[in-house]
């Protein structure tokens, strides 16, 4: 973000000081003089702004903030007209320097050359209120594009959190647009800023040592909402995404919605909710617990399993079940996460064979709905219509040059998406009863509406017959408020998650939009998002953030739309309960509930049964060793609020947790178990250290062991959980033969016989695999017939 000069290097390392020069400048006049003009902003946007003395251009340029000056000067290794400008105007009296503060119009960095310090009005406490307002106004003015309907910087927006532009790292506008929409999703934002204690950190996540996106995304969210800067560079976040999807490693324009899906997939893997206990209390036991709080704290069950993080996939796995009417593909639930709770919906596909009348039903989870625009006008294949190739070419050219100006409604597109469609020709379905491809009818229906609904409009088209790719420029009229999804859904009741009133919530309000400007394979992505703090719409064009009106948004050519489920009744309920929490006088016994559940209650319409298993141990108390940041994982509420929430949403059987001294007490049993584990860690570390060697004697063998398991043991030695049985099937086939392309160090390592025997005796598992060298693909020196290790020696 800053120039790579020696002088600017001192800026990066400069500490904040009390600058007297900015105080003099604030009294001289308007902070936006000259920099708010259309010509100046146009030169900055086009990178055509030049130094007043030489030909240097952005980003080496700085603007003097003296309101009657506003000189444009440069700062580089060879030329330093910023200092020349300052020294010429202040030869005699530098203490009264008014031409010493400069702003970089591209990076929005403010620098005082007289004090040799950076001035950050968003976090510099040494600046007085007048100076902070002045500099914030300068930054917000440069941050926004010229808005014809807004002649001056809106002073009410200069302190609004979340108005942070993202630096373009070289054709990364597709990523910036998706990230801005994610950043302004209230439930997700609040999770990372309020429930971050639940994020599994890397030192304790050796099961998946390459999972770093959650922490990187957490840092991104905090930077976006900390209010400490107007520009953020998401280089670490985008680099992490590139590790998981090779498509984004290519240098070129990519699809913004595909990036959105990739981020959600990875976060879903890394942020599972702690697994609930298996035993649930009856309604009578729950009622008695609430009537006798002292008794409720002693709830215990030997059948309860310790909460742990589990892993799965975001796609719904399916199993087939035969019925009299046909085959039903039923979903198998994978783990739940904050991502699936916010973005995941359920789509039902019904297919009927027109020959044998057999029905098929399949359910799939989705993060977004990809719907066609004006489906009845789509290009037809030659099997359906014998249109000439020339007409297809003409249709492609029309879309390519944006000459198609028809307008359709979003509701029409959704109706077409859910309408019954006849599958014929190349789209025929293979019926397992007919044992052939047959004509079928297909109907889609949403059986579970997500809290946040993302709709992708298919604007890109490839015609395989004319070999033309084009973009569909049809304008889709979309509702800003009250999008009713009831005609396109048939929600099913889930007794564990829903009550009857939540099934009736089918309306959504728009809060985000991604717009693609230009042609297919190129162009530029821009995000338009409604800020959840002030309720205003803003355009996020890389580093530029500009306030927009609702009318401006409604006229856009949308590529992706983001809707949030709405419920005035739920909003009123939250308002009343939050008021009761804030008014608590301390008379009632405070109860602690999970922040994860509280976040769901605050921002979703289906929070599910109240649960404390997110932070409770298997003994019904808290393992402070495992959760040292427990105070950041719970919310303290009065007893009356706790009972109200349980009456409204029910409970999963987790015991209530409270403390009469308003503190949080740890589990005595877990404390003893942790002491025993610590003793075990020290003993194993000492024992292995005594018998481990880097070489072996002649006649001995190397015992190959999983690198992943060995890393888990080292994690246990450093304070993590026990690693479990040895699992060498990570590099061996089921028959014991080596898997292909396994690498030494990454997939397996070698230990001597005494270390292997120690691990096998302590943890069990296997299978045994020996070599004369640490090479999985070297010959097995022993056959299973003549060795003491028996049948295990087949590898």
Automatic annotation (TrEMBL):
InterPro entries xref list: DUSP-like_sf, Papain-like_cys_pep_sf, Pept_C19_DUSP, Peptidase_C19_UCH, Ub_carboxyl-term_hydrolase, USP, USP_CS, Znf_RING/FYVE/PHD
Any single GO CC term annotated in Swiss-Prot or TrEMBL for this entry: perinuclear region of cytoplasm
Location of the USP domain: 164-566
Keyword Protein biosynthesis attached: no
Name used for this protein in its record: 16450_t:CDS:1
Cellular compartment(s): Cytoplasm, Cytoskeleton, Microtubule organizing center, Centrosome; Cytoplasm, Perinuclear region
Source taxon at top rank: Eukaryota
PANTHER family named in the record: UBIQUITIN CARBOXYL-TERMINAL HYDROLASE
Organism of provenance: Funneliformis mosseae
Keyword DNA repair among record annotations: no
Keywords: Cytoplasm, Cytoskeleton, Endocytosis, Metal-binding, Repeat, Zinc, Zinc-finger
A GO molecular-function descriptor: zinc ion binding
A Pfam cross-reference name: zf-UBP
Family: Belongs to the peptidase C19 family. USP20/USP33 subfamily.
Gene Ontology BP term (one): endocytosis
Domain DUSP: 569-662, 674-774
PROSITE patterns assigned to the protein according to its UniProt record, in alphabetical order: DUSP, USP_2, USP_3, ZF_UBP
Domain UBP-type: 17-138
């Amino acid at each position: 973000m800053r120039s790579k000069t020696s002088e600017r290097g001192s800026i990066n390392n400069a500490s904040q000081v009390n600058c007297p020069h900015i105080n003099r400048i604030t009294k001289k006049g308007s902070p936006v003089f000259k920099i708010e003009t259309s010509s100046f902003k146009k030169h900055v946007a086009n990178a055509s702004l030049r130094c007043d003395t030489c030909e240097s251009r952005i980003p080496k340029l700085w603007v003097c903030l003296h309101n009657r000056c506003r000189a444009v000067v440069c700062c580089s290794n060879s030329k330093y007209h910023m200092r020349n400008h300052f020294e010429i105007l202040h030869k005699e009296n530098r203490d009264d320097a008014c031409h010493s503060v400069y702003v970089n119009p591209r990076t929005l960095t403010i620098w005082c050359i007289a004090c040799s310090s950076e001035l950050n009005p968003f976090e510099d406490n040494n600046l007085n209120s007048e100076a902070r307002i002045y500099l914030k106004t300068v930054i917000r003015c440069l941050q926004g594009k010229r808005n014809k309907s807004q002649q001056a910087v809106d002073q009410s927006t200069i302190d609004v959190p979340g108005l942070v532009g993202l630096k373009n790292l070289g054709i990364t506008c597709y990523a910036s647009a998706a990230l801005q929409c994610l950043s302004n999703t209230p439930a997700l934002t609040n999770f990372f800023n309020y429930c971050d204690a639940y994020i599994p950190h890397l030192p304790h996540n050796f099961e998946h040592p390459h999972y770093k996106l959650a922490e990187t995304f957490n840092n991104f969210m905090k930077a976006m909402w900390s209010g400490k800067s107007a520009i953020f560079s998401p280089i670490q976040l985008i680099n992490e995404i590139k590790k998981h999807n090779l498509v984004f490693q290519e240098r070129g324009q990519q699809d913004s919605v595909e990036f959105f899906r990739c981020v959600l997939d990875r976060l879903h893997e890394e942020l599972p909710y702690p697994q609930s206990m298996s035993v649930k209390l009856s309604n009578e036991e729950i009622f008695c617990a609430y009537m006798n709080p002292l008794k409720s704290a002693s709830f215990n069950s030997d059948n309860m399993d310790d909460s742990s993080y589990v892993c799965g996939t975001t796609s719904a796995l399916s199993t087939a079940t035969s019925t009299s009417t046909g085959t039903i593909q039923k979903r198998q639930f994978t783990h739940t996460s904050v991502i699936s709770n916010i973005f995941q919906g359920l789509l039902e596909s019904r297919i009927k064979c027109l020959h044998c009348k057999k029905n098929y039903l399949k359910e799939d989870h989705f993060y977004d709905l990809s719907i066609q625009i004006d489906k009845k006008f789509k290009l037809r294949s030659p099997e359906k219509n014998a249109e000439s190739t020339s007409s297809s070419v003409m249709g492609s050219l029309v879309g390519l040059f944006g000459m198609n100006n028809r307008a359709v409604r979003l509701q029409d597109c959704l109706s077409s998406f859910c309408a019954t469609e006849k599958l014929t020709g190349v789209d025929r379905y293979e019926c397992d009863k007919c044992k052939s491809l047959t004509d079928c009818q297909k109907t889609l229906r949403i059986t579970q509406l997500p809290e946040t609904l993302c709709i992708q409009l298919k604007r890109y088209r490839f015609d395989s017959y004319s070999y033309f790719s084009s973009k569909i420029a049809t304008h889709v009229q979309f509702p800003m408020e009250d999008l009713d999804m009831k005609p396109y859904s048939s929600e099913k009741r889930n007794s564990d998650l829903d009550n009857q009133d939540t099934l009736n919530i089918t309306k959504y309000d728009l809060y985000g939009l991604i717009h693609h400007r230009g042609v297919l394979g190129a162009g530029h992505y821009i995000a338009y998002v409604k800020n959840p703090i002030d309720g205003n719409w803003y355009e996020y064009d890389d580093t530029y953030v500009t306030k927009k009106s609702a009318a401006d948004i409604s006229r856009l050519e949308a590529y992706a739309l983001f809707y949030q489920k709405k419920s005035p009744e739920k909003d009123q309920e939250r308002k009343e309960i939050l008021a009761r929490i804030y008014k608590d006088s301390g008379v009632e016994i405070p109860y602690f509930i999970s922040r994860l559940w509280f976040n769901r209650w605050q921002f979703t319409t289906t929070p599910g049964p109240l649960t404390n298993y997110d932070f409770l141990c298997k003994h019904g108390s808290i393992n402070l060793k495992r959760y040292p940041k427990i105070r950041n994982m719970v919310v303290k509420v009065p007893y009356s609020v706790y009972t109200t929430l349980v009456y409204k949403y029910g409970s999963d059987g987790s015991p209530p947790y409270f403390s009469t001294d308003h503190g949080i007490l740890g589990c005595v049993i877990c404390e003893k178990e942790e002491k025993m584990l610590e003793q075990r860690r020290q003993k194993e570390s000492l024992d292995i250290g005594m018998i481990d060697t880097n070489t072996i004697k002649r006649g001995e063998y190397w015992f190959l062991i999983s690198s992943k398991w060995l890393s888990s043991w080292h994690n246990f030695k450093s304070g993590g959980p026990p690693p479990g049985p040895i699992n060498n099937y990570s590099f061996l086939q089921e028959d014991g033969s080596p898997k292909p392309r396994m690498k030494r160090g990454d997939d397996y390592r070698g230990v001597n016989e005494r270390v292997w025997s120690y691990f096998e005796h302590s943890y069990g598992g296997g299978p045994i695999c020996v070599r004369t060298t640490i090479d999985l693909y070297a010959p097995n020196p022993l056959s299973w017939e003549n060795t003491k290790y028996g049948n295990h020696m087949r590898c």
